[in-house]
Write a structure and sequence with these properties.
Elements lengths: L3 E2 L9 H9 L19 H18 L5 E6 L2 H13 L5 E6 L2 H10 L4 E7 L20 E4 L1 E2 L4 E2 L13 E4 L16 E5 L10 E6 L16 H6 L9 H17 L1 H21 L5 E2 L11 E6 L4 H11 L2 E2 L10 E4 L6 H17 L5
Parallel strand pairs: 1-13, 3-4, 3-5, 5-8, 8-9
Antiparallel strand pairs: 2-10, 6-7, 9-10, 11-12, 12-14
Helix pairs in contact: 1-6, 2-6, 3-4, 6-7, 7-9
The structure holds pyridoxal-5'-phosphate.
């Protein structure tokens, strides 16, 4: 049996997908060539990209008003592409900060825009709608749907009440993990490497009327409109990543789609939070209950010195990569789409056993 990999990024992939990649690695679709050797202009690869787009559209329910684009550069490139493309004639952008990634996106956007702080959180909770403050002159309102480092997730789509200000979301770490009403968004994006395949691909879903707002000095390869016009091929795309994400999308479909991904995510995270909650003297949690992430469970041993002991014992038990992000320390279990519920159960068993072996000294 493979060990359970709780890595936050890049992350575990479904075993059937990995096997499929292995099985057709030397001879893709009877061509005698590997997918790594296939031209991005070949009819087969063009069909593959079309298929991936169709799958993203049908899984997420993307309406015709929105384009689906495939970019490179990871989520962090979007921190710059969003303001470069969406400011238009405006100069102000509003940011909701709930943790590391939204803070980072806000900082990057300062190169291009005046930032209006719509909410400044400290990585322990999401704001209520009433707490979100947006000026009407803002070109867009940005937030991060799931803060991967802090383990803070929005329970639903925030409603700032600022009609006419497009909503932009970084969904990198909870993409394809629950149904989303795409019509509510001006733009949403996700780097693939958490829930949707290996690193190297970023999916951008953008309302078509927001394409073409970029000013002339925006570089060609950073302009969404160029991706839309070229079928996401303004240059050589990451063909292998597109291929892997297409297999991932097919796997999600075959497992029952996003409602099923959500049910499993709730089940996995419930199992792990319940185990942690049973030992409040051993494991500390900083995130408000209502903002707890289904994807990244972040916790700290009450005795900080036990962190390396926990990691070593967990590793020996076949539970890998549970270290917290280097900036916050502690521990983190990432429970993405490909993590089986049995992985959450194995982790919960380990949490109980570890708490018994290392009770808090009075
Ligand atoms: C991982 C992550 C990022 C950074 O992704 P890169 O592809 O490494 O740039 C940004 N935002 C969120 C929410 C993430 O989880």
């Amino acid at each position: 049996m493979r060990p359970y990999n709780f890595s936050a990024d890049p992350s575990t992939m479904p075993e059937p997908v990995l096997r499929r990649i292995r099985d057709e690695f030397l001879d893709w679709q009877g061509t005698g060539c590997s997918i790594l050797e296939a031209s991005h202009r070949s009819p087969r690869v063009l069909a593959l990209v079309k298929e991936l787009e169709e799958r993203v559209r049908s899984l997420l329910g993307v309406p015709d008003t929105h384009a689906v684009l495939f970019c490179q550069g990871g989520a962090r490139l979007q921190f710059a592409m969003v303001p470069m493309n969406l400011l238009g004639a405006g100069t102000v952008a509003s940011y909701i900060v709930t943790g590391t990634w939204s803070k980072s996106a806000e900082t990057e956007a300062m190169r291009f825009a005046r930032i209006q702080s719509a909410f400044a959180g400290n990585g322990t909770r999401t704001p209520s709608d009433e707490e979100i403050d947006v000026t009407a002159e803002s070109s867009y309102l940005y937030y991060c749907d799931n803060e991967t480092v802090h383990g803070v997730e929005f329970a639903g789509i925030p409603d700032s009440g600022a009609a006419g200000v497009p909503l932009v979301a970084d969904m990198s770490s909870n993409f394809m993990s629950r149904p989303v009403d795409v019509s509510k968004f001006g733009l949403l994006y996700a780097a693939a490497q958490k829930n949707f395949g290996p690193a190297g691909l970023t999916v951008v879903v953008v309302r078509r009327d927001l394409l073409g707002l970029a000013s002339p000095e925006v570089p060609t390869l950073l302009n969404y409109a160029v991706y839309e016009k070229t079928g996401s091929m303004p240059n050589t795309p990451a063909v292998f990543q597109l291929y892997c994400s297409n297999l991932m999308a097919a796997w999600i479909e075959s497992e029952g789609g996003l409602a099923e991904m959500d049910a499993r995510a709730r089940e996995r995270s419930r199992i792990v939070y319940e185990a942690l909650d049973e030992h409040p003297d051993v494991y500390l949690q900083r995130v408000d209950r209502a903002s707890r992430s289904r994807m990244n469970v972040v916790f700290h041993p009450a005795e900080e010195a036990l962190t390396p002991v926990f990691l070593k014992e967990a590793h020996e038990a076949g539970l890998l990569n549970l270290a917290g992000h280097r900036t916050v320390g502690g521990l983190r279990a990432s429970l993405y789409n490909a993590m089986p519920v049995s992985g959450a159960i194995a982790l919960a068993d380990f949490l109980h056993a570890f708490a018994r072996r290392h009770p808090r000294r009075a």
